[in-house]
Amino acid sequence: MTTPRKPRGPYRKGVRRREQILDTALEVFAGRGDAPLQEIADRVGLSQAGVLHYFGSREELLLAVLRRRDTLDRAAGEHAGGPGEAVARTVRHNMDQPGLVRLFVSLSAAATDPSHPAHEFFADRYRDLTATIARGLAAGRRAGTVRADEDAEHLARLLVAVSDGLQLQWLLDPSVDMAALVETFDRLCAAPREE
C-alpha cells in the first residue's frame, strides 16, 4: 500500500497560503460577521485581488469560512451523548463567535434564492445534518433513550429548526440562552422514564 504524497513546491505553498487566508477570515468574521475583504487582505499581506486568487470570489471565501465553521462545530460536538447534546455543545461553542452566527444567519436566508451562490451549500448542509441527527435519534430510540412515538426525521428537522431559530433570536437579544433551550428540546425528545 502506498501512502499519498504531500504536495510539494509552489502547490504546497499555495495550499498553505489559502489556509492562512481562511484562518484569518474565520477569525475576522468570528468577531464581526461583516468584515470587508480589504481587512482580510491587509492581515495576510495581500491585495483584495490576491485573496480572491485563492478563492475565486468573495462568496466562495464566505462559503469556505462556513465550511470551516462546520468542521469546528463538529469537533465541538464530538463525544456528546446524543444528537441533542451535540447540537447544544455546538451552540455553546458558537455563542463565542457572534460574527460567524451573524454570517451564517444572513447567508442562509439569502441562499433560499436558488440562484444564490450558497444555495447548494445550504441545501446539502441541511439534508446531511438532518440525516446525521435522524440516525443518532434512531440509535437512541433503539437504545431506549429517545421517544419512540415520533418520527426520528421529524425530530431531527425540528432540532435543526430550533437551533437556527434560536440563533436569530440570540442575535436580536444576546440574553437568550440558546444552549439551554436546545437542551430543553433534547429533554422533550427523551423517552419517558418508567416509574
From TrEMBL:
Entry coiled-coil feature ranges: none
Keywords assigned by UniProt, alphabetized: DNA-binding, Repressor, Transcription, Transcription regulation
Claim: S-adenosyl-L-methionine is one of the keywords in the record: no
InterPro entries tied to this protein: BetI_C (IPR039538), Homeodomain-like_sf (IPR009057), HTH-type_TetR-like_transc_reg (IPR050109), HTH_TetR (IPR001647), Tet_transcr_reg_TetR-rel_C_sf (IPR036271)
Domain HTH tetR-type: 15-73
One Pfam family linked to the record: TetR_N
Protein name: AcrR family transcriptional regulator
Species this chain originates from: Actinomadura algeriensis
